[in-house]
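Support case: guanosine-5'-diphosphate complex. Customer-provided input:
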Amino acid sequence: MSQYPEARFLSSAASADQLVADDGAEVAFVGRSNAGKSSAINTIVNRRQFARTSKTPGRTRLINFFELAAGKRLVDLPGYGFARVADPVRAGWERLIGGYFANRGSLRGLFLIVDSRRGLGEGDQQLLALAGSAGLPVHVLLSKADKLKRGQAAAALRQARKALGSQATVQLYSALKREGLDEARGRLDGMLDGRGTPEGAK
Ligand SMILES: Nc1nc2c(ncn2[C@@H]2O[C@H](COP(=O)(O)OP(=O)(O)O)[C@@H](O)[C@H]2O)c(=O)[nH]1
Ligand SMILES: [Mg+2]
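Agent response - structure generated as follows:
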């Protein structure tokens, strides 16, 4: 699977007019603050500090664009669900992300990062609804799976699959143990190459 050795940071956007040119194909990573999004990006792209990991959740409020290869981008969206973020900031988030989902021609799909110990939260459900309205395929990474015992992890996967139904594909993922990498990379490449949802993936 691709590891994108030429991957590089492009730019950050704080508003819709700062997005990079809407051509080629891109996949956006999104999730609750602290879910493990930056860690997932770093392992999938195989760079230690590509997207920064943070112990201060909710700090990054920007859309960060990375070029993986010519005409292929990975987009790191700001996290949500952080209690200390004030309401006006939250409203700005919804406007920025909602507008981006609805109007971005090059956006092929979303990776939704969900802490496997917490399961799908309210913010995740809202995100899934936004993605559904925009007709975007979603792949869920149940992150930090190394923190669960094998049986618990299997139960978390079953439960998420049931809750998601046909809204998204889902897998277990551990950035720490580098588990689930091949499946995640395969799904990322599939979205970027326009192969859609793999048969029997749900
Ligand atoms: N045990 C474990 N910890 C993880 C994993 N992924 C992320 N973390 C930790 O969870 C915290 C938040 O991770 P980060 O990637 O910054 O989350 P983000 O806010 O969603 O970008 C950090 O302390 C990470 O070290 C994982 O797979 N296993
Ligand atoms: Mg992060």
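Residues 7 and 68 are 4 Å apart (CA to CA).

Case will auto-close in a few days if no follow-up is received.
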